[in-house]
Amino acid sequence: MNISIVGTGYVGLVSGACFAEMGIDVTCVDIDEKKIGRLLSGEVPIYEPGLDDLVRRNVEAGRLHFTTDLSSCLDQVEVVFSAVGTPPDEDGSADLRYVLEVARTFGRNINKYTILVTKSTVPVGTSKKVKAVIQEELDKRGVQIPFEVASNPEFLKEGAAIKDFMSPDRIVVGTESERAQRLLSRLYRPFLVNNFRIYFMDIPSAEMTKYAANAMLATRISFMNDIANLCDEVGADIDMVRKGIGTDARIGNKFLYAGCGYGGSCFPKDVRALARTGREYGSPMRIIEAVEAVNERQKEIVVRKLAAELGDLRGRTVALWGLAFKPETDDMREAPALVAIDRLTCAGAVVRVYDPAAMDECRRRVGDAVVYCSDMYEAVVDADALVLLTEWKQFRLPSWTVIRKVMANPLVIDGRNIYDKAELVAEGFTYKAIGK
Ligand code: UDX
């Protein structure tokens, strides 16, 4: 089977490499010539554990190809996946420019029955627009070529993307015909050994499923952050509460960790987009609007805690451990670290940062607003406070004795609740966490 995947971001590249691993011939397409150039020379432009090897292996086996020209491979493929970006507009709605551009190229160049499957997270109703654009291009050409659109949202997590793609909890596919269903279930059959479920449904339901899933997960986080902040006030411990409720099978114990807010390329964008869809259709999403507001405020929590301990932050030195929005990625999109850096530098603090993977990304985003340190221990030198923002493994069990010696003031703000309060207090630190 031959397929093509447009967009070589996280979703596109991971999907492409994983399909190729299953013996499918995959052509990955991107308009970014530099990116394709790097991929052709064997360089993977994103940080994702295991992806380098997977890409290299499949390129060498001749199953994974890269090009900047979608039209050049359309005659050989039956299915085209569109996994291009949908960056948020100023008003929070998804910018569909790239999605519709793929549809246009598709309509201009197909010569036989082909399915265009949207993998990008797009607002409900987008597939209709995609279909209309393709039809418009076919009409311009004056040809009648059968085609179909389908929706196949992707649920993979950064940092665990390959595992998630290879053994997904479920696969959701929205189609309009049995023919498309047959083709797509054949394409996903190699993954069946892992006993996963594939759900075929109508296209609007598939589009909605993706938003509902991400919004539900984001809701759990904002809910727990709200409860944690109240725990702080009433003297309760959020970790106890989490265990207490998570053992109820109806609630489940996952995604209940309070912290300094969620970030990333999906939750913030999707929550806003869903709220917007609700407003557009006159069906306001009150919970979702609150989830977003709680999260925005939660990203400032470490700075509020710092100010409560240190008073005026002007001239104070603050060390930040972790810049990426979560461990095992260099991605800083909507990361709580960006809010912390902004608020701290505006307040006149000196910010010293360290992250195992996101230092270059941070430089690109904030330039020399902060001091870049070569390791976690260098970051805390002369610091008035250490703030943990991302729970990378290497931050989990540091040598507190060493840190205590080099810090100017022994204050630790644990934005992810990973440290043992008793241990830090015994080492002479003032320890503040979220909801404990
Ligand atoms: C998410 C979804 O999990 C995935 O299904 C979807 O396809 C894309 O969006 P991702 O953005 O890679 O994936 O990150 P995820 O691991 O889900 O974490 C998102 C954010 O939530 C991180 O900032 C993380 O720190 C935060 N989080 C997660 C919490 O604050 N508490 C939790 O309990 C879990």
UniProtKB/TrEMBL annotation:
Pathway(s) annotated for this protein in UniProt: Nucleotide-sugar biosynthesis; UDP-alpha-D-glucuronate biosynthesis; UDP-alpha-D-glucuronate from UDP-alpha-D-glucose: step 1/1
Domain UDP-glucose/GDP-mannose dehydrogenase C-terminal, residue spans: 319-421
GO BP term, example: polysaccharide biosynthetic process
EC number(s) from the headed UniProt entry: 1.1.1.22
Binding site for substrate: 155-158, 210, 255-259, 263, 326
Binding site residues for NAD(+): 30, 35, 86, 121, 158, 269, 333
NCBIfam families assigned: NDP-sugDHase
InterPro entries: 6-PGluconate_DH-like_C_sf, NAD(P)-bd_dom_sf, UDP-Glc/GDP-Man, UDP-Glc/GDP-Man_DH_C, UDP-Glc/GDP-Man_DH_C_sf, UDP-Glc/GDP-Man_DH_dimer, UDP-Glc/GDP-Man_DH_N, UDPglc_DH_bac
Active site: 266 (nucleophile)
Family: Belongs to the UDP-glucose/GDP-mannose dehydrogenase family.
Family annotation (SUPFAM superfamilies): 6-phosphogluconate dehydrogenase C-terminal domain-like, NAD(P)-binding Rossmann-fold domains, UDP-glucose/GDP-mannose dehydrogenase C-terminal domain
Any Pfam family: UDPG_MGDP_dh_N
UniProt KW keywords: NAD, Oxidoreductase
Function: Catalyzes the conversion of UDP-glucose into UDP-glucuronate, one of the precursors of teichuronic acid.
Record's catalysed reaction(s): UDP-alpha-D-glucose + 2 NAD(+) + H2O = UDP-alpha-D-glucuronate + 2 NADH + 3 H(+)
Name assigned to this protein: UDP-glucose 6-dehydrogenase
MF-aspect GO terms: NAD binding; UDP-glucose 6-dehydrogenase activity
